[in-house]
Amino acid sequence: MTMILSTDDLRKLAKKRVPRALFDYAAGGAYDERTLSRNAADLDAMTFRQRVMVDVSNVSLATTLVDTPASMPLAIGPTGLAGLFHADGEILAAKAAAACGIPYCMSTMSICSIEDVRAATGQPFWFQQYLMKDRGFNQELIDRAAAARCSALMLTLDLQVLGERRRDPRNGLTIPPRLTLRNAWDVATKPSWAMRVLFGKRRTFGNLVGRLSDSNGLLTLSQWTANQFDPSANWRDVEWVRSRWPGKLILKGVLDAEDARFGVAAGADAIVVSNHGGRQLDGAPSSISVLQEIAAAIDGRCEVLFDGGIRSGQDIAKALALGARGTLIGRSFLYALAAAGEAGVTKAIEIMRNELRVTLALTGTSAVGAVGPHILRL
Ligand SMILES: Cc1cc2nc3c(=O)[nH]c(=O)nc-3n(C[C@H](O)[C@H](O)[C@H](O)COP(=O)(O)O)c2cc1C
Description:
The structure is a single chain. This protein has 378 residues and is of the alpha/beta class. 44% of the residues lie in helices and 11% in strands. Helix 5 (89-100) packs across helix 6 and helix 5 runs parallel beside helix 16. The site of flavin mononucleotide has 25 residues, from helix 2 and helix 16.
């Protein structure tokens, strides 16, 4: 039995459970992966101010994220293809998140559809979308998210064009995944994945059924993205989405203080400081290195969420200290899902919860609301 004590243990297990092309799809970043590396390195370089002899017998992690009650300042961020990491991955993610009391954000590029997830969970979830060339499709997704009673819409702003993730073409990643001469041995060593996913019932983009023009349905993610995502999108389009969506609007992918101000002006209820996990502009700063200045620019006018490199409760505490109200995980979630399905996701959340609780206690803090820059050695 493998002992699982950290999210890195789940990552190692995931590597054994899913084919390399899929593991690399999650692990990789754009171009030389410099921004990807910086996300983790800059978080690692931060240190805490340890405090002693403070009564920390009751540490409270409870908060709200975009008006959604959350048992801790963590949400599962949107990741495409989660349902290929484990059969019914998005459904399992939504269930694990609901049971742990944190929000789950479903990606448009999911394998299960919005309706699949809605039918499987009673708890409202968040839905993420991009601006498409066909605004009719955006409207359709907004309507579907409203019908599924999604509690927030997350609009991702940082993918007007796709940063090349070199691992994907090198590994020949296709959607749906297929068995080829090249990956036959790799797949043969992952029989459980092959049975449940490769030969399972959901293997392509559940939200896009009927929209995939390719005749045999087989395509690379970069092809579809290049055809569908709108490189001409601008702030007026964000305002358009705002006018169409009556609920909470979260804008994801802001790395610049000026853009944060535009986002507030466009009516955001929350902004996610994010560089897409180092998957877009290689050479962009780490998310953590710009968090404080963006939080200052937003100045309480909307919520500040953060992602990029979160692997532990300690990382969550660092983001809160620099001004985030809550954090999102991408890879830490996908690895956990690949490692052990719903139980894996629950495990990852519980590991981070315990790490966060201990970190707050040892920095002399009793509640997430009391975390500030004073817990860091800046
Ligand atoms: C495999 C993968 C797929 C992703 N797909 C999406 C997506 O469909 N929509 C989106 O807004 N962000 C997507 N992201 C970005 C994540 O939401 C998040 O910003 C990023 O993963 C955070 O960094 P982390 O992986 O270090 O936690 C994806 C990230 C990964 C790793």
